[in-house]
């Protein structure tokens, strides 16, 4: 159980330069939460004394009980939701995706109330989904990790998710991909309210090699370590974000500023296959991962992978892996080559 630092009561009467409320959802991810709050902690006081002087923060859950993270660590003390008007920012930290429960519904209602009061809302990791479910992201782009991009895009088709940056500032809505990028977003807010020196101090003590701007690209899946052709890399990035809505080769070429012939030639030179084949294999690998690691129905998985119907999806799966989706779900050992997780390497053994 992790004990949170207690605010210095002697300083409680003075208004801090930056006040943040954290909404911790069930099974929230510990790294982005810790990175964000530690950046605040180090900017709040001289040295490493941890008094909440320049910055203050409070941890909240729907019932005020300790918050359980996805790794099993608990954060305490927490308190029930308070007047959101007390904060400059309300930061919601999401985690493992699951069906909304009581805690999530209470948090969504709280976020709606905060938005109605003009409080700036920050979604970190899958906390972005709670902002969307609260109905406060209409007509806006939101930043999400490449890992969750496909899931968000398939569940919320009226939202424009982006996975090519660390965080996105859209005025009274900020969204962050999560992970270590949460420290960069926190430093961005610290610099805004306290100045650059305090932001640099926090990041230096946390052993960050400087502040990364929001538009800094997210680290990409392993496939990029094996590809030197920048055009092919750009094309793969586009394909990873279109798993549920496949592009024609002409559309892909237009998106990356190339001709169809040049794109096909460079794909074959780099990967040994054309973009259409690569895209199909990518979608099938995604489907295979969903079969093994989620409880979605086969129909839902086929749709998430951009196949017109279940029969079409099943036919391609059987042709590629030698078994039907239901057989692969029951017996993962039917696939001999190692599964990769999940947006993916190009696996040449798919036929």
TrEMBL record:
<dbReference type="InterPro" id="IPR002818">
    <property type="entry name" value="DJ-1/PfpI"/>
</dbReference>
<keyword id="KW-0238">DNA-binding</keyword>
<keyword id="KW-0804">Transcription</keyword>
<dbReference type="InterPro" id="IPR029062">
    <property type="entry name" value="Class_I_gatase-like"/>
</dbReference>
<protein>
    <submittedName>
        <fullName>GlxA family transcriptional regulator</fullName>
    </submittedName>
</protein>
<feature type="domain" description="HTH araC/xylS-type">
    <location>
        <begin position="233"/>
        <end position="331"/>
    </location>
</feature>
<dbReference type="GO" id="GO:0043565">
    <property type="term" value="F:sequence-specific DNA binding"/>
</dbReference>
<dbReference type="InterPro" id="IPR018060">
    <property type="entry name" value="HTH_AraC"/>
</dbReference>
<dbReference type="InterPro" id="IPR018062">
    <property type="entry name" value="HTH_AraC-typ_CS"/>
</dbReference>
<dbReference type="InterPro" id="IPR009057">
    <property type="entry name" value="Homeodomain-like_sf"/>
</dbReference>
<dbReference type="Pfam" id="PF12833">
    <property type="entry name" value="HTH_18"/>
</dbReference>
<dbReference type="InterPro" id="IPR052158">
    <property type="entry name" value="INH-QAR"/>
</dbReference>
<keyword id="KW-0805">Transcription regulation</keyword>
<dbReference type="GO" id="GO:0003700">
    <property type="term" value="F:DNA-binding transcription factor activity"/>
</dbReference>
<dbReference type="Pfam" id="PF01965">
    <property type="entry name" value="DJ-1_PfpI"/>
</dbReference>
């Amino acid at each position: 159980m992790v004990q949170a630092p207690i605010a210095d009561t002697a300083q409680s009467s003075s208004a801090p330069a930056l006040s943040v409320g954290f909404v911790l959802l069930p099974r929230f991810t510990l790294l982005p939460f810790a990175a964000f709050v530690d950046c605040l902690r180090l900017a709040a006081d001289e040295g490493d004394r941890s008094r909440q002087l320049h910055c203050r923060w409070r941890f909240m859950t729907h019932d005020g009980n300790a918050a359980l993270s996805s790794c099993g660590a608990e954060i305490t003390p927490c308190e029930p939701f308070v007047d959101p008007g007390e904060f400059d920012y309300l930061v919601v930290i999401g985690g493992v995706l699951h069906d909304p429960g009581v805690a999530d519904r209470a948090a969504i209602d709280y976020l709606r109330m905060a938005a109605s009061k003009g409080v700036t809302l920050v979604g970190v990791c899958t906390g972005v989904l709670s902002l969307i479910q609260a109905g406060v992201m209409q007509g806006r782009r939101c930043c999400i990790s490449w890992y969750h991009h496909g899931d968000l895009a398939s569940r919320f088709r009226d939202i424009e998710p982006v996975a090519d940056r660390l965080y996105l500032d859209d005025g009274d809505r900020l969204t962050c991909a999560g992970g270590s990028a949460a420290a960069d977003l926190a430093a961005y807010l610290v610099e805004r309210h306290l100045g650059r020196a305090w932001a640099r101090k926090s990041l230096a003590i946390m052993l960050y090699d400087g502040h990364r701007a929001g538009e800094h690209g997210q680290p990409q899946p392993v496939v990029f370590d094996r590809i030197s052709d920048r055009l092919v890399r750009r094309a793969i990035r586009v394909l990873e974000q279109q798993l549920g809505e496949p592009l024609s080769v002409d559309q892909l070429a237009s998106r990356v500023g190339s001709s169809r012939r040049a794109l096909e030639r460079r794909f074959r030179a780099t990967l040994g296959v054309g973009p259409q084949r690569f895209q199909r294999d990518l979608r099938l690998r995604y489907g295979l991962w969903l079969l093994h690691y989620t409880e979605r129905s086969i129909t839902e998985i086929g749709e998430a992978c951009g196949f017109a119907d279940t029969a079409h999806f099943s036919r391609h799966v059987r042709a590629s892996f030698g078994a039907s989706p239901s057989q692969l779900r029951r017996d993962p050992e039917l696939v001999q080559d190692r599964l990769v997780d999940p947006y993916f390497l190009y696996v040449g053994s798919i036929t």
